[in-house]
Amino acid sequence: MIRIDELLRAYHQGFFPMSDPSDRKVYWCQPYNRAVFFLESYRPSRDVLRLQRKKEFRVTIDKDFEGVIRGCAAPRKNDNETWISGEIIEAYLKLHHLGLAHSFECWYQGELAGGLYGIAMGGAFFGESMFSKRSYASQIAFDRLVFHLKMKGYLLLDAQIINPHLTKLGAVEITHAEYMELLGNALKKKIIFL
Predict the structure, then answer these.
(1) Distance CA 66, CA 90 (A)
(2) Which of 25, 107, 142, 162 stands 20 to 30 A from 42 (CA)?
(3) Does residue 81 sit within a domain?
(4) Nearest residue to 2 via CA among 28, 29, 31
(5) Domains in the chain: how many in total?
(6) Is residue 43 part of a domain?
(7) Is 193 exposed, middle or buried (0-12, 13-18, 19+ CB in 10 A)?
(8) Are 103 and 117 in contact (CB under 8 A)?
């Protein structure tokens, strides 16, 4: 079982948890390079802007945290493995009840079509995972997250490990030292997420 105090301390020190799909054990990760989004340079894609104008999707915050984390934990169509174990789900549900973990839900015709979740501490938001059941649903949720973080004055949007999808959304890699400096500055801020 992941202790909540240990989990929060890990984030302050630049670590995050992942479970290994083969043994289901939770490991603490601290990559040499960190994926982050610079909020001021983020620009939504034309497709996201088009879909927002059409108003086919509705985005909410913290209306179905458990639905989002379980959607993120479900195997992807091209990959049957997941790093989000039952132990991780349980820990983040506790963090959500404490007001530290948050979700952005994207709804299509009344059904959860995608979303993302993460942890907010100080002026940092640690993005954990996102999922889509419908094209662009997670990107629209992400766009609303960035808008919210900018509006509230957040300094850091941590995306952990770079991948092609995050690169497409605008993530960049920085060194561990650069990340820790950003993190230190962000954690000094006092921001209420909602």
Answers:
(1) 10
(2) 107
(3) yes
(4) 28
(5) 1
(6) yes
(7) middle
(8) yes
φ and ψ at residue 103, rounded to 5 degrees: -130, 150
28 lies in which domain range? Answer: 4-187
pTM score:
0.94
Report residue 73 as tokens.
């934990």
Token pair for 64: 């179905």
Q: How far apart are CA 174 and CA 182, in angstroms?
A: 10
* Residue indicated by tokens 């949720």: 141
Give pLDDT, residue 79: 67
Q: The tokens 């948890």 sit on which residue?
A: 17
Which residues lie below 8 Å from residue 168, measured CB to CB, with a gap of 6+? none
* Residue 54 belongs to some domain of the structure: yes
